[in-house]
Design brief:
The structure holds two protein chains of two kinds. Chain A is mostly beta strands. Chain A contains no helices and ten strands. In chain A, strands 2, 4, 5, 8, 9 and 10 form a six-stranded mixed beta sheet that branches. A four-stranded antiparallel beta sheet of chain A has the order 1-3-7-6, with no helix packed on it. The termini of chain A are far apart. Classes of the chains: A mainly beta, B mainly beta.
Chain lengths: 116, 110
């Protein structure tokens, strides 16, 4: 596609349920990030996939959060046993370069998660 | 601790009133500093990349500059359509990832 695509755009779930958020990056982009943005706040780093290297998971807030990137393309962020504090917008971004030459990021529109 | 700090948190300007936003960073091995614009309900949109101290980039009413410890985003004669949140980010070899500041919310009144 022309840009980074995220789905769903909105998700309302009950506390304790699991959710999956999907990101389709721009074709050919080797780097992929997930960020979390709470209302009125900046972007909190969650996880970074860089080509075939092991992902940097240092930003995941707890073991309820996990992410995969299959075939170097589509990524899924999974949140298990959701809590109300997980409510936020989850943003995915990709970049055509990675490593020390990482360039600008191209963002999707985000997935807004609301945990009741 | 590796971090990016932006100031002010919010800035209210009259149309035509020039000002500057600040981004200071404490990271090791800076490889690039980025400015993004974010409109409500949208993902951030790339504006500039700066790689080394002394570098400057311009786009319409915006000009970004970089020193060894901070960057400035200068807005000349802003218009209401410049109202948005401006985010600063850095990619650094100390962490090998891109991290963001909290942003500056800019409001330009006609």
């Amino acid at each position: 596609g022309a840009g980074v695509s995220q789905s769903p755009s909105n998700k309302v779930t009950e506390k304790g349920k699991d959710v999956e958020l999907r990101c389709d990056p721009i074709s050919g982009h080797t780097a992929l990030y997930w960020y979390r943005q709470s209302l009125g706040q900046g972007l909190e780093f969650l996880i970074y996939f860089q080509g075939n290297s092991a992902p940097d998971k240092s930003g995941l807030p707890s073991d309820r959060f996990s992410a995969e990137r299959t075939g170097g393309s589509v990524s899924t962020l999974t949140i298990q046993r959701t809590q109300q504090e997980d409510s936020a917008v989850y943003l995915c971004a990709s970049s055509k370069t990675s490593g020390v030459n990482t360039g600008e990021l191209f963002f999707g529109e985000g997935s807004r998660l609301t945990v009741l | 601790e590796d971090q990016v700090t932006q100031s002010p948190e919010a800035l209210r300007l009259q149309e035509g009133e020039s000002s500057s936003l600040n981004c200071s960073y404490t990271v090791s091995g800076l490889r690039g500093l980025f400015w993004y614009r974010q409109d409500p309900g949208k993902g951030p949109e790339f504006l500039f990349t700066l790689y080394s101290a002394g570098e400057e980039k311009e786009k319409e009413r915006l000009k970004a500059t970089l020193t060894k410890k901070e960057s400035f985003l200068h807005i000349t004669a802003p218009k209401p359509e410049d109202s948005a949140t401006y985010l600063c980010a850095v990619f650094y070899t100390g962490g090998f990832k891109t991290i963001f500041g909290a942003g500056t919310r800019l409001f330009v009144k006609a």
